[in-house]
Design goal:
Layout: H1 2-13, E1 23-27, E2 32-40, E3 48-50, E4 56-59, E5 62-63, E6 74-83, E7 86-89, E8 109-115, E9 118-126, E10 131-139, E11 142-150, H2 172-182
Antiparallel strand pairs: 1-2, 2-6, 3-4, 4-5, 6-7, 8-9, 9-10, 10-11
């Protein structure tokens, strides 16, 4: 009876916000697909570092993407690409609330390239407050996350202090080398 009441309530009220299917497979052509398994974020299972009293900056030692500095709701339990039936793990550390900016019930991945240099995959995510992009390069059954940046990240400080000056750096080792060669 409880199950029937829950089912009726779900039909009447609709699915909860961010009702992502916890397991999704996204086809990127005939031979490539991304498989993701999501789970609810449990703060007590992670090392959290706050930059300020209210702004979460690191989870398990990695910068937080997808939260605008708040506690994540969802994270990837597993994220892999399958290329010609070879499973390749994709680095998802620091990536949270991976909802699509277009369809909140689906993940958004696109195939950027598939050529002699490897396969390049992009994921675009947004929780409505913090959008971010990740890209991976897959070569020979291994992957590297080659991009992880945000389009709506909040800076830690509004503007850099006026006393900061950036000076060019010279390589003193290379500058000293001709003098050493002259002694020979």
């Amino acid at each position: 009876m409880k199950l029937l009441a829950s089912a009726v309530a779900l039909l009447l009220l609709g699915p909860p916000a961010h009702a992502l299917d916890p397991r999704q497979a996204i086809a990127l052509g005939d031979r490539i697909r991304v498989v993701a398994e999501l789970h609810h974020f449990v703060a007590s299972e992670h090392a959290l570092y706050y930059c300020t009293d209210e702004r979460l900056c690191l989870v398990d030692g990695y910068p937080v993407f997808g939260t605008a500095g708040t506690m994540p709701e969802m994270g990837f339990k597993q994220l892999v690409a399958v290329v010609d039936n070879i499973v390749v793990a994709l680095d998802h550390r620091g990536m949270f609330n991976p909802w699509s900016p277009i369809d909140r019930d689906a993940l958004q991945f696109t195939l950027i390239s598939d050529d002699a240099n490897g396969v390049r995959i992009r994921g675009e995510f947004s929780d409505g407050a913090a959008a971010y992009v990740a890209e991976w390069l897959l070569v020979g059954g291994v992957s590297a996350r080659v991009r992880l940046d945000c389009t709506g990240c909040l800076p830690l400080t509004a503007t850099p202090p006026t006393s900061v000056q950036v000076e060019p750096v010279s390589d003193d080792a290379n500058a000293a080398r001709p003098a050493a060669d002259a002694k020979r």
